[in-house]
Q: What sequence folds into this?
């Protein structure tokens, strides 16, 4: 199995990416293609000892910046690590592509180069989120902000396959993120989606409200890319603000500081539990190939775990499984 | 000043509502009209000693349930506490109306009975949210889930007036909730709103991402009712899940339990800080009268604080101030 990794993607590239790849080589039986500016990647690799027969470098002289306009960058920089990496996938010289780079650019290049699965019009980004019970899979967290109802139906069908094959849930339940439980709730758009899902999605449990996203009540939570992006960002921001507030309050009292020290190991356990880097990246579904988007701030551990997630996708032949589900 | 209060609204009505009114009578120079089933309200009032010249009861034999279909309920139950209460406002026999009842019914009855402010087509619900720095005002959190871009413009104009007059911020900044900072981000809908706001809203600072909702970066955060409802519900749910996870982890370790005890007073301080009941209710803006929607789970304190908030609205003549802003 050969995983193609964008060496230049993310805020800490290429250091964090190469470090993550080195970790992955130790843990998984996998070959890696690192795509990026050859001398930079070589210099970084030179800091480690590893099995050189399992790593190759694909030179890509251009880099897409994290803040660049996605479609413009992809059009102009055909020799970027993102485009070159996805080309390798397209030519069947790799089984999956991982990038912590510009999300919009990865989405655009994947759609353009790999094309879409039959019956799918637009890609969607899924995200495994930790909940009180287990995990839930939230989709779309930002690929498609102007969807038609059918696009969310396709997300639901693909999500069920992903959760079944990659997360190992036998018959995943599917909920539609809405602002009330009743089928009549929400604007015209979600009402249309509700109707479609009722007709077409197995184990559809109806509307799920946003206060249930983290309870683990359902396996797949479906929403448009705007709403999904708001959900993950407001959650990120709230945890950061709550943490800052907690630290501010604790500092006001020596007693509370002592208390915090005593709680430390448990707090760290929670931190680890809630840490997105434990689950790797966010799969881009709907394109005709396995593409994983990692957080721009990805640590080596996040990259390693993203590699693990793609290995599961390859092992379970996720693309064929989704294509089959979509053609039903 | 006379505040009209729906005695039958909320999960703990009429007990919690009447208890809150009794508290308010002690703290504020105000008269209260309690609207509800006369004998139930009288029975509840009989448990307290208070200045009887400052409280009257308006009999409303019908009650709208929390889960009833809003518009149907309002059409069928013309003698509900919600409709009767808003009628009193309409007849100028009261200065503001507060209800912890069925939100949709309050929105529908207010719009129907009071009508809209000139130039406004749809109402919006605002919410004062605690942030790291101070407060921010999020609008709309659920009144209008099928808005046109103009509706969000009107929300922005009204929000600025509310935050200036009621929260005392001199020149409130306004941000548009979006999934990126650049003006080109988001779907067509938010792009249209961005353009409108740029032209018409004073101190418009552009897009604000959802991870900044709780940082206090801007005073007024504008979004559609679907997205705003998701923001508050996902925040509520996340804090509940994080709390449950924390308790679960702490119970695993006697050391951590001791730590939690030492931190107790600081944790309670945070809880109080983040407690929505401290800020009363959520003002319904756009209708031609002062209407405040309280949380269905409102405690007596929440009701008392909602009364305080409406007193400020009346004192600052918020309706005239918004009408003037909208006519510019």
A:
């Amino acid at each position: 199995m050969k995983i193609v990794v964008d060496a230049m993607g993310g805020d800490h590239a290429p250091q964090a990416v190469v470090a993550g790849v080195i970790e992955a080589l130790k843990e998984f039986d996998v070959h890696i293609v690192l795509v990026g500016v050859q001398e930079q990647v070589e210099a970084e690799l030179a800091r480690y000892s590893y099995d050189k027969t399992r790593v190759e470098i694909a030179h890509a002289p251009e880099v897409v910046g994290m803040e660049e306009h996605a479609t413009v960058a992809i059009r102009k920089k055909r020799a970027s690590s993102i485009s070159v990496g996805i080309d390798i996938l397209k030519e069947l010289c790799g089984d999956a592509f991982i990038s912590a780079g510009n999300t919009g650019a990865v989405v655009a290049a994947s759609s353009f180069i790999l094309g879409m699965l039959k019956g799918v019009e637009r890609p969607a980004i899924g995200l495994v989120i930790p909940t009180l019970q287990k995990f839930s899979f939230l989709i779309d967290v930002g690929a498609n902000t102007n969807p038609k109802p059918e696009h969310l139906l396709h997300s639901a069908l693909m999500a069920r396959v992903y959760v079944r094959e990659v997360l190992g849930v036998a018959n995943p339940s599917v909920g539609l993120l809405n602002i009330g439980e009743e089928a009549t709730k929400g604007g015209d758009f979600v009402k249309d989606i509700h109707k479609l899902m009722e007709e077409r999605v197995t184990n559809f449990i109806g509307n799920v409200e946003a206060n249930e996203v983290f309870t683990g009540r359902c396996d797949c939570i479906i929403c448009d890319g705007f709403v999904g992006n708001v959900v993950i960002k407001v959650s990120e921001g709230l945890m950061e603000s709550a943490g800052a507030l907690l630290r501010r309050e604790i500092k006001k009292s020596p007693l509370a500081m002592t208390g915090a020290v005593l709680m430390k190991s448990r707090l760290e356990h929670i931190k680890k539990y809630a840490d997105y880097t434990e689950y790797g990246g966010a799969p881009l579904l709907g394109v005709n190939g396995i593409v994983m988007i990692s957080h721009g701030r990805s640590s080596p551990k996040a990259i390693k775990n993203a590699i693990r997630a793609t290995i599961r996708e390859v092992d379970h032949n996720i693309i064929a499984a989704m294509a089959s589900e979509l053609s039903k």
